[in-house]
Design a protein that fits this description.
2 domains; 6-stranded mixed beta sheet; 4-stranded parallel beta sheet
Length: 498
C-alpha cells in the first residue's frame, strides 16, 4: 500500500510538471484571402511588386487555367482570376495595386464575358483574348502565342491537378501545356505538335488519363504517373527538380488556388507540391524529407489547407523516416514483474509513439504492430530496408533488486555515434519528465539492434517492471500517453537541431 501511495504521488507530480515541448519548427507562411480571387491577387503581390502584364482566366474555368502558367511566365505576368459576368472586386483592386497596363484573357465569353472586357477597358487597360471552341483548341492556341520549344507537356484536359503540378517546370523550360482526353490523342493537339515541330513530349498521368494509343502517337514521349495526384506531384518534383529554398504548397483539389501557386512558383523557380486538406500525404512527405525542404508558402485559406497541415509543415520531423522497434514479442515476453510483461509495454508505447509521430508528419516503419517476434538481425535488416533516418528500440528493464528503478537511454558508438548521442540526449530528459521516474541518464552499450544499425540508433529502457514504483507508472495509460508524447518531442527536437 505504501508503494501504491508513493506511485500515485509521483504520477500526480509528473502530470503537473510535464508539459510537452512545442514541436520544432520549419518556416511556414500562408497566402490567403476571403475568396479565390483575393487569394490569386495576394499571391501575385507576393511575387510581383508591379505587374504591367496580367493573364486572366475565369474563376470557375479550370480547364482554361491549365495552359496559362507557361504562357504567363513568358509574358512576365501573374495568373489572376475573375467572375465570368463582372469584374471581381479583389481583382480590380489588385490590378490597380500591381499597376497593370495590359490584360490577356484566356478563354471564351462563357468563361469571361464581354462585360468584363468593358470594365477592364474602362480602367484604361489594354485587353486581348486567346480562345478556342473547346479546352483543347484553347491550349493549342495559347501554345501558338509562345516561343518555339523542342518539347511540350501533354495532360488529360480534365486532370487539373496533373497540369498544375508540372506547370512551374514547364514554364521555366518554355514548354507549352497541351491537352487531350482519355479516348486518344486530340486532333487539336496533334496538329499543334506537328506544326510546331515538337521533338519531345512529357506525358503527365497514367494510362487511364492518356492511353497507350495516344502515348505512342506522341514524339519521343516519357510518362510521369502515380497512384494519385499526390504521387504524380511527388514524382514530378523528383524527376524535374526545381529550387527548394521556398517550396509552395496548395490543396490538390483547390484548382483556382493551385493555379495561382503554380504561377508564383514558376516566377521564383521553386517547387510546387500538393497536399490533402487535413494532412500532408505520404508521397509528399517523402519528397520533403528527401529534399530536406524547410521553408514553405501555403497558398489558400483554412477552408482548403487546414491548420493541421500547417502544424505538420512546421515540424522538423516532417518527411523523416523513423523505425520503431517494440522489443521482444510472441514467445519472447522479455522482462516480467508486478503483473507486467515487457513485450506488451513495449508494443503499447510503440503504437502510441507511432500515432504521435505520424500525426506530426513523420514516415513510420514498425518492426512489429502486434504480438509477433523477429530476430535481432531481422529487426536490424528491416530498419536498413526502410532506409530509416533513425532507429528507436523500446524496452522495459528488470533487476533482481526490486529497489532498482528509473529510466535510461542507450546508444552505441559503432555507427553514427555523434548523432546517436544527440538523439539520446534529446529523448532521455523528456521520458523522465513525462513519467516522473528517476533519471538514470544516457549510457553506451553494445545492444545488438543499436550496435548493428547504421543510422542514428537508441534503445530506451522506460522503467523497471520489477520495481513496484516503476511498474505502477507503466501500468498507467495516461503515463504511457505522456511517455509517447515526450519521446516524439525529443525526436522532433533532434531533427530541428541537426
Amino acid at each position: 500500500m505504501r508503494f501504491d501511495i508513493k506511485c500515485m504521488l509521483l504520477i500526480a507530480i509528473s502530470i503537473c510538471l510535464y508539459t510537452p515541448s512545442v514541436f520544432a519548427q520549419h518556416t511556414v507562411s500562408r497566402i490567403e484571402g476571403s475568396n479565390r480571387y483575393e487569394v490569386a491577387v495576394n499571391t501575385a503581390k507576393r511575387g510581383w511588386q508591379e505587374a504591367p502584364a496580367v493573364v486572366l482566366v475565369g474563376g470557375d474555368a479550370y480547364a482554361d487555367a491549365l495552359s496559362a502558367v507557361p504562357y504567363a511566365y513568358q509574358q512576365g505576368a501573374p495568373v489572376l482570376l475573375t467572375n465570368a459576368g463582372s469584374l471581381s472586386g479583389p481583382l480590380k483592386t489588385g490590378l490597380q495595386q500591381l499597376k497593370t497596363k495590359r490584360v490577356t484573357i484566356l478563354g471564351g465569353t462563357a468563361s469571361i464575358s464581354e462585360n468584363v472586357v468593358k470594365q477592364l477597358k474602362a480602367m484604361n487597360l489594354s485587353v486581348s483574348r486567346i480562345q478556342g471552341k473547346n479546352r483543347y483548341e484553347l491550349a493549342a492556341n495559347v501554345a501558338k502565342h509562345m516561343k518555339s520549344a523542342s518539347a511540350a507537356v501533354v495532360v488529360n484536359g480534365s486532370a487539373y491537378a496533373d497540369a498544375v503540378a508540372i506547370a512551374p517546370y514547364a514554364a521555366k523550360q518554355g514548354y507549352p501545356i497541351l491537352l487531350t482526353d482519355a479516348k486518344g490523342l486530340r486532333e487539336e493537339t496533334a496538329n499543334l505538335l506537328k506544326n510546331k515541330a515538337v521533338k519531345r513530349t512529357i506525358v503527365i498521368g497514367g494510362e487511364a488519363s492518356i492511353n497507350k494509343m495516344a502515348f505512342q502517337k506522341l514524339p519521343s514521349p516519357v510518362r510521369i504517373s502515380g497512384a494519385n495526384r499526390y504521387e504524380v506531384a511527388a514524382q514530378i518534383a523528383k524527376t524535374y527538380p526545381m529550387m527548394t529554398s521556398q517550396t509552395f504548397i496548395s490543396y490538390g483539389y483547390a484548382y483556382a488556388d493551385a493555379a495561382a501557386a503554380a504561377s508564383i512558383a514558376a516566377k521564383q523557380g521553386q517547387t510546387l507540391l500538393l497536399t490533402d486538406a487535413q494532412t500532408v500525404p505520404d508521397a509528399i512527405r517523402k519528397v520533403i524529407g528527401a529534399k530536406q525542404k524547410s521553408a514553405f508558402s501555403v497558398v489558400g485559406g483554412t477552408s482548403t489547407v487546414q491548420t493541421n497541415v500547417i502544424t505538420q509543415l512546421k515540424n522538423a520531423v516532417l518527411g523523416e523516416t523513423i523505425f520503431i522497434d517494440p522489443g521482444h514479442g510472441a514467445q519472447d515476453a522479455g522482462a516480467i514483474g508486478n503483473g507486467l510483461l515487457e513485450k506488451n509495454i513495449n508494443l503499447e508505447v510503440a503504437l502510441k509513439l507511432q500515432s504521435r509521430l505520424n500525426q506530426a508528419g513523420a514516415l513510420i516503419v514498425m518492426s512489429r504492430t502486434s504480438d509477433t517476434f523477429d530476430s535481432l538481425q531481422t529487426r536490424v535488416n528491416k530498419g536498413a530496408q526502410a532506409s530509416a533516418d533513425i532507429f528507436i528500440s523500446i524496452h522495459a528493464n528488470a533487476n533482481d533488486n526490486s529497489g532498482a528503478n528509473g529510466t535510461e537511454t542507450y546508444y552505441d558508438t559503432t555507427y553514427a555515434a555523434t548523432n546517436s548521442i544527440k538523439l539520446a540526449q534529446q529523448v532521455q530528459p523528456r521520458m523522465v519528465s513525462a513519467l516522473g521516474t528517476k533519471d538514470r541518464g544516457v549510457k553506451t552499450a553494445g545492444f545488438y539492434v543499436i550496435k548493428y544499425s547504421r543510422m542514428p540508433s537508441i534503445l530506451l529502457e522506460t522503467g523497471f517492471v520489477t520495481s513496484p514504483i516503476d511498474a505502477s507508472i507503466l501500468k498507467s495509460t495516461t503515463a504511457k500517453d505522456r511517455l509517447a508524447s515526450g519521446i516524439a518531442t525529443g525526436v522532433s527536437n533532434y531533427f530541428d537541431a541537426k
